[in-house]
């Protein structure tokens, strides 16, 4: 599997573009560039039946978030608060992500 360039990072707020959770917003919990997928908080929940084990002595049904394909989510710009495509620009010798709608820098400088 080849490495896929993701436009979202861990901690970004995204909106889901298609599927059963279309229109829902959430934070990216995990980004998986090798698989081209992301896990979004509170979106794409699945139920898993588990046997009793050390972590869950009772067993039962666990509800957790499943990965979504990265092309199904779009970044929400923190400045204009709208879903936007991501541009790239060099600022102070560093490549940063830029909102295509308002032109603001998305990556916070530390």
Largest sheet: 5 strands, antiparallel
Query: What is the CATH architecture descriptor of the largest domain?
Result: Roll
- Strand portion, in percent? 35-45%
Within the CATH hierarchy, at the fold level, what is the topology of the largest domain?
Answer: SH3 type barrels
Radius of gyration: 17 Å
Helix coverage percent of residues?
Answer: under 10%
Mean pLDDT: 90
Count of domains:
2
Provide the low-confidence segments as ranges.
none
Beginning-to-end CA distance, first to last residue: 33 Å
Shape: elongated
> Total number of β-strand segments?
9
CATH class of the largest domain: Mainly Beta
GO biological process, one term: translation
Pfam families: KOW (PF00467), ribosomal_L24 (PF17136)
Domain KOW: 7-34
Subunit structure: Part of the 50S ribosomal subunit.
Q: Can you describe this structure?
A:
Belongs to the universal ribosomal protein uL24 family. GO terms for molecular function: rRNA binding; structural constituent of ribosome. Keywords: Ribonucleoprotein, Ribosomal protein, RNA-binding, rRNA-binding. InterPro entries: KOW, Rib_uL2_dom2, Ribosomal_uL24, Ribosomal_uL24_C, Ribosomal_uL24_CS, Ribosomal_uL24_KOW, Translation_prot_SH3-like_sf. The protein is an all-beta fold. It has 2 domains: 1-51 and 61-76, SH3 type barrels, CATH 2.30.30; 78-110, no CATH class. Helix content is 0%, strand content 41%. It has no helices and 9 strands. Strands 6-3-2-1-7 form a 5-stranded antiparallel beta sheet, with no helix packed on it. Strands 4-5 form a two-stranded antiparallel ribbon. A hairpin with a 2-residue loop joins β8 and β9 (94-99). The chain is elongated and about 55 Å long. The two termini are 33 Å apart.
């Amino acid at each position: 599997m080849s490495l896929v360039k993701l436009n979202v990072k861990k901690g970004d707020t995204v909106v889901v573009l298609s599927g059963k959770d279309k229109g829902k917003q959430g934070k990216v919990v995990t980004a998986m560039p090798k698989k081209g997928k992301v896990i979004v908080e509170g979106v794409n929940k699945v139920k898993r039946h588990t046997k009793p084990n050390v972590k869950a002595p009772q067993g039962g049904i666990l509800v957790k978030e499943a990965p979504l394909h990265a092309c199904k989510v779009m970044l929400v710009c923190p400045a204009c608060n709208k879903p936007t495509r991501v541009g790239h620009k060099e600022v102070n010798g560093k490549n940063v992500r830029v909102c295509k709608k308002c032109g603001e820098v998305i990556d916070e400088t530390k």
